[in-house]
Amino acid sequence: MNKWLAFVLFVVAVGSVVFHFVSPWWFTPLASNWGHIDTTIVITFWITGVAFVAVILFMAYCVLKFRHKADRRAAYEPENKKLEIWLTVVTTVGVIGMLAPGLIVWNQYVHVPDGADEIEVMGQQWTWSYRLPGADGVLGKTDVRNITSDNPFGIAMNDPNGVDDVLIEGDDLHLPIDRPVKVLLRSIDVLHDFYVPHFRAKMDLVPGLVSYFWMTPTRTGSFEILCAELCGTGHHIMRGTVVVDAADDYDAWLQEQETFADYLAAAEAAKTSTARLALDNEEAEPKAAQ
What we know:
This protein has 5 helices and 10 strands. By secondary structure, it is α+β, with helices and mostly antiparallel strands. It folds into 2 domains: 2-67 and 77-110, no CATH class; 117-269, Immunoglobulin-like. The chain has a 5-stranded mixed sheet with strand order 3-2-1-5-8, with no helix packed on it. Helix 2 packs antiparallel against helix 3.
């Protein structure tokens, strides 16, 4: 029985390593500058993989070496300083090996290069909306208390920088290739997480504050946006698409989008039309009564 258990442990160790290398589930093709994130994950795989195999094989060895025998008794050894020092050193080296690359990449991830474009991603149950700066290149100030049906992003009405902001609701987000972009993230209800697997980029959206990261798209195409934070019953449908365009295609797309000024003008026109219709109905009622 002990031999079979040791054999099963051996198969688990070897099978796990083989499956890791032949598995069809691996990274999506990289489409941003964050190849360092892939490297960090690979380093973690190697360290944890070696530790996993070593522990499993050690267990198999112990099952065989120290299996029960009628003439054998267990030795009680409460302390072993040499073993404790060895385990402490090896564990410390392993933890440093996993943490150090991640800290280096994280430092790069949140230090935005000069001249990066700014865009805003707004999450709400269960959809994504986006805001891009207009011709002035500056996003207007926002406040959740300003959010109305006519002002879905809560842009400050007294901020001239917000008038030409480009607002995108229920449509794809477009980005130009090879231009760094700072992604500002905010939520107007619960926790969300903006995640584009091809970019290796993700960050929580926390109500009440603005989080951010930056990245540079390096490949044209369409890439799926996911919410990586359980945000309610409709979490599974909170998806979107980011399209990376060549510079000319991006500029052409941007010219076709509505600005905050367009939103306000459309809302005012709708109010005027509604008021006129109501007035016409009031005038028509006396005539109908006659």
